[in-house]
Amino acid sequence: xxxxxxxxxxxxxxxxxxxxxxxxxxxxxxxxxxxxxxxxxxxxxxxxxxxxxxxxxxxxxxxxxxxxxxxxxxxxxxxxxxxxxxxxxxxxxxxxxxxxxxxxxxxxxxxxxxxxxxxxxxxxxxxxxxxxxxxxxxxxxxxxxxxxxxxxxxxxxxxxxxxxxxxxxxxxxxxxxxxxxxxxxxxxxxxxxxxxxxxxxxxxxxxxxxxxxxxxxxxxxxxxxxxxxxxxxxxxxxxxxxxxxxxxxxxxxxxxxxxxxxxxxxxxxxxxxxxxxxxxxxxxxxxxxxxxxxxxxxxxxxxxxxxxxxxxxxxxxxxxxxxxxxxxxxxxxxxxxxxxxxxxxxxxxxxxxxxxxxxxxxxxxxxxxxxxxxxxxxxxxxxxxxxxxxxxxxxxxxxxxxxxxxxxxxxxxxxxxxxxxxxxxxxxxxxxxxxxxxxxxxxxxxxxxxxxxxxxxxxxxxxxxxxxxxxxxxxxxxxxxxxxxxxxxxxxxxxxxxxxxxxxxxxxxxxxxxxxxxxxxxxxxxxxxxxxxxxxxxxxxxxxxxxxxxxxxxxxxxxxxxxxxxxxxxxxxxxxxxxxxxxxxxxxxxxxxxxxxxxxxxxxxxxxxxxxxxxxxxxxxxxxxxxxxxxxxxxxxxxxxxx
Amino acid sequence: xxxxxxxxxxxxxxxxxxxxxxxxxxxxxxxxxxxxxxxxxxxxxxxxxxxxxxxxxxxxxxxxxxxxxxxxxxxxxxxxxxxxxxxxxxxxxxxxxxxxxxxxxxxxxxxxxxxxxxxxxxxxxxxxxxxxxxxxxxxxxxxxxxxxxxxxxxxxxxxxxxxxxxxxxxxxxxxxxxxxxxxxxxxxxxxxxxxxxxxxxxxxxxxxxxxxxxxxxxxxxxxxxxxxxxxxxxxxxxxxxxxxxxxxxxxxxxxxxxxxxxxxxxxxxxxxxxxxxxxxxxxxxxxxxxxxxxxxxxxxxxxxxxxxxxxxxxxxxxxxxxxxxxxxxxxxxxxxxxxxxxxxxxxxxxxxxxxxxxxxxxxxxxxxxxxxxxxxxxxxxxxxxxxxxxxxxxxxxxxxxxxxxxxxxxxxxxxxxxxxxxxxxxxxxxxxxxxxxxxxxxxxxxxxxxxxxxxxxxxxxxxxxxxxxxxxxxxxxxxxxxxxxxxxxxxxxxxxxxxxxxxxxxxxxxxxxxxxxxxxxxxxxxxxxxxxxxxxxxxxxxxxxxxxxxxxxxxxxxxxxxxxxxxxxxxxxxxxxxxxxxxx
Lengths: 643, 584
Description:
The complex is a heterodimer.
Chain A: H1 10-20, H2 32-43, H3 48-57, H4 62-71, E1 83-88, H5 91-95, H6 98-109, E2 115-120, E3 132-134, E4 137-139, H7 184-189, H8 194-199, H9 204-214, H10 226-231, E5 241-247, H11 256-263, H12 265-279, E6 281-288, H13 293-308, E7 324-329, H14 339-346, H15 361-364, E8 371-375, H16 376-388, H17 390-395, E9 397-398, E10 401-402, E11 404-411, E12 417-422, H18 428-435, E13 445-449, E14 458-459, E15 463-469, E16 475-481, H19 489-494, E17 503-508, H20 513-527, H21 533-550, H22 558-569, H23 577-591, H24 593-598, H25 614-619, H26 634-637
Parallel strand pairs in A: 1-2, 5-6, 5-8, 6-7, 11-17
Antiparallel strand pairs in A: 1-3, 3-4, 9-10, 11-12, 13-14, 13-17, 15-16
Chain B: E1 21-26, E2 29-34, H1 39-45, E3 69-75, E4 93-95, E5 100-101, E6 111-114, H2 118-133, H3 149-157, E7 175-176, E8 181-183, H4 193-200, E9 207-210, E10 217-220, H5 232-237, E11 243-245, E12 258-263, E13 272-278, E14 281-287, H6 300-303, E15 319-322, E16 325-328, H7 331-343, E17 350-355, H8 360-373, E18 377-381, H9 400-405, H10 416-425, E19 430-434, H11 445-449, E20 453-458, E21 470-473, E22 482-485, E23 490-494, H12 507-519, H13 527-537, E24 554-555, H14 577-581
Parallel strand pairs in B: 1-6, 17-18, 17-19, 19-20, 20-21
Antiparallel strand pairs in B: 1-2, 3-4, 3-5, 3-6, 7-8, 8-11, 9-10, 12-13, 13-14, 15-16, 15-21, 22-23, 23-24
Helix pairs in contact in B: 2-3, 7-12, 8-12, 8-13
């Protein structure tokens, strides 16, 4: 193919052809992101040459590829330094000092062209904050004082502790163990793939019914009943059915999937294969976030190992069922966690979520075929449901909140990390104080974000009225504190927030709530896909308001403006990102009104007094102009006044 | 209905062939709509227009602008899984707590819709505010002002004061997306209509969004510009002032434009148009919706093909050969001169070179003139191009169907060689060229000069004029009334948008005067009378009159699209965009 001035190695061409082969022949466009990754690995960045070459290779227009390169922040259009550092700036890392880390790094690298550094959004390792990636390697607990050791020391692995007595380990049984490895032999020694062997002796309906009986609810954030989702697939479906494992873990505060993928990949694979068999899905894609390059390699290897044992591939375990599992890497867009955004992304497009109706994935999903999208943890649970039986599994946890779930605790606690609990059997207080060690010495918990950063914040001194089942089976309303809330879907929903993805972020009394909200707002402003109006415009507006308040430019209307802007987003957007970006603002302003009022004392100015214009603030260096990945730079570059 | 949810059985018992009608409550009143009606269209049909930006009925629905949010409800189901009925016998509606977009769903039985409830209004106010916070609000110098949907809906849902104290997002301005379209990214509201048009209608996937979130900008890749022949439709469907026509921008405020319904005469498709004029100057031509002809679109070639009407090359003065040269004459003298010249010859010594760009009325009179002269050798000049599968016909003449129907030709171009040979051998002594250039016969000016009588009726000067013995300046398509029949047999009417320049006259009047001068008969005073004579004689036009032709035309022929002959041995030059630019 003589389409480019850039010579391609035969090895690269081979990899490219192999990547294209992973998708149906009439959907070659899906290979766009894999090809961009390959190109960037080879050449360091995506040149215009690369855009044209890939477009021609996939029979697309160059604009189709350019749309992707500029949407996904991990793709670079200019070369990075030989050592490229990505510093996580999202809430838990920022609370642990990642901004100071960035300052140190920039100071140290100022003159050195061999290094480059950028802020990125959540790297999904909040329990070991602050974290950085040097190239493809994750470095944990990179405190500001240790920032400069990044290049000299090998990445430090966080210390792991044995399960807490209150835990109930099912999914994480083997995770964190020093003697447990990711290869299939280790997995088989621990009884691996026995449940798959059991599942293929069952009928499809039996498995689906077991999942229904188990009461399993999705662990990705929305908590939708998994069995109900599965039952949307008709047993006699004529079109191909696809299963997608949503491994795009990116909700700030959540880092459970990271450990499953990196430490127990075969458990996930077994869950996927059982689900494929149950759904008659002959193809499964694992959409793994781009920031897990190591995880993608581990999964690829796991797939090959499983193939060698005939757990997948042609005529799986002699059942006559052919199944293929492919890994598809994302490239740094939070919105790909939304299932229809993920599907668009997997089809090789910008991850613009689809409107529902009509595009319900179970009917019109990937390639307009019936598609089930499940979270990593959810699919692991399927394995255990087959092992235990649906009824026995449902005995775990509480009615309508069955099973176990992994809770990730980060922020202002002494022992952040993951804890697998029976749903609802542990209270918020037990999680924070007993398991995560409580706040640092002499500090008090001020607030808790219970289910990933988009969940509504709860005040430590709030009281909640929850309906609790009494011993005699009747329901009684109880007045309880934050720390008495059971960690389950329904209780947290009743408390006005949500269990979400299980990411608990603890804020202690030293935290400035305007600063905290500003950090969250920046995340959502950066991650908004920009497809629909309220979220695109509102998320950046809210961020600009909290920016200004932090810089001393708050005016009296700001708390009300923030609230109404958020109100105008929530419930009016294509996807749930609208709520995700509005809920923090709504809840922070409502629950910490006095802090917001304090910062907004100035009378409302006539339009834009000079001290509020950000150009001046930039000139005074009060606004950091450290570029976020993919800031297009219009703001600081300025454009000519031509119309 | 027969789906078990039929509540209005006494209202509606459709027979097998009629489309299924569904009962839908809109703003408290029950209406019926055929199955498959979009909610947003249903609301519009009953007078409750729902504002929208991204929705366009000819394109797919992405649902991204969120302007069309309404309250929607479904019938409340009783324990027997049948809808609960209210006092009016109609279903009670269970209203969904969240607002829904009305552009992506079809109506369903028992659906309830509120387009003007407090929630719906609040949603629109919210979206309006969001759309305007980063918008430059440069309406005074924006070409879209006056026909801008942001302005329109701001009147209803906008706020007088802005709460936005921040700096607006800066984006590229004055971007040339292609040779005919200029983009202002700051005005763009990212509705994606233009992107979808290029993908779905023009089949040229050339536009896209780059960057993300509030920084998203519309663009084309540097290696592939927006230069397809349908690019200017993106300007029409852009609801704001982001995409502007490079030709029209900064030329005229749209509210000063007088709009005349017409159709395009640049090919046999006959796309319906609106001609925007001010004080006898045409500023733009835009497509007018007609699903039987052009949907909502037209090609750039046809759209911009009006500059020749304002060309310096226009013939403005009748001329007649006197002594040894052409001299300016008044109309009487010119007509008399022309007929006097032709009277020297018998019908078999005269040929008429007619045009398939003429209106039916002109063709009818041409045929009558030919009968009067006894001329048998008459032919039109074919024009062909590659065409496309969208709108552009391979036949670049607008009225080939009329020429065939009215007998000016049996096969366009077939007899041109005969005319040419007749002139070369001297058998033909008189030539009447109506709207066509005799050079196109493949003759040189000197060869044409051998003709003792050569009458030219045309809009623009050409080389052959030097050989003419009478020059009769006529009108262009925007300067006259008249009808044509497009390639699919649809009769459509031209309306006068501007007055003709100088002493140029309406073609039909010139032809009538030639006939009167030749025959001495008197009679026709209006073009309607011409049409009446024609409709009395031509069965396909029976019962019609010129004013009876609706704005969307009338289907009169049921013919396969006419495919013009591949090759006629005659060189064809369509009036190209370049030459017509001169006039502006």
